[in-house]
Amino acid sequence: MILNQEMLYKDITDELIKMATPNDNPIPEISRYLKYNLKNASFDMKDITDIERITLKQIQNKIGGQFNMIHRVQEKGVRTPDAEYYNKLLHTNKRYYDVKAPKKSNNIKSKKHKITHSLDQAKGQTRNVIISLLREECDLPNGEAVHQIKNALSKPDYSWLNSVILVGKNNFIKIYQRK
């Protein structure tokens, strides 16, 4: 069953960019998530990738706000998102985001499902996902990624999402948020 995507999600890119205060603030690394901190949990202190950092920096440079990179909690059953984000234009409180940076497709079928595969990986971890096409080997064009995101957001299987941010090649960005 396909829902009317326009009813559930809205492309808020243009209005956000008009109101934004872009910044080039550093993105700190933190070792806390929900009830976990260095006093009561173990953290993987080497899990942050350059692609994640570059992706978050591009978002801050385009729409402002402040990201903090979260080190992975090393506790059984805990799935840690990649970042927390404060941006009063998007939400009133901080929100957790997971960054998905797809690699090169193995075949045509995997290329057609690259975005849904990335969204599926984030389920149960956070309700906000950033899709980054900035990996050099990523073969998904910006337009195809937009098409796949709109298609996914029109399906009930993805109604758990609050927001999806697409960071594409050539300084491209799209932001979809639940109405």
Nutshell version of this structure?
This protein has one domain (5-178): Trna Endonuclease, Chain: A, domain 1, CATH 3.40.1350. 28% of the residues lie in helices and 25% in strands.
Detail the topology: elements first, then pairings.
Elements: H1 5-8, E1 9-11, H2 13-19, E2 29-30, E3 32-33, E4 36-37, E5 43-44, H3 50-63, E6 66-70, E7 72-73, E8 83-86, E9 95-100, H4 108-112, H5 114-122, E10 128-132, H6 142-153, E11 163-167, E12 173-178
Parallel strand pairs: 2-6, 9-10, 10-11
Antiparallel strand pairs: 1-12, 3-4, 5-7, 6-8, 8-9, 11-12
Describe what this molecule looks like in 3D:
The protein has 179 residues and is α/β, with parallel strands linked by helices. It has one domain: Trna Endonuclease, Chain: A, domain 1. Helix content is 28%, strand content 25%. It has six helices and twelve strands. The chain has an eight-stranded mixed beta sheet, sandwiched between helices. The protein has a two-stranded antiparallel sheet with strand order 3-4. It has a two-stranded antiparallel ribbon with strand order 5-7. A hairpin with a 5-residue loop joins strand 11 and strand 12. The longest helix has 14 residues, at 50-63. It is globular and about 45 Å long.
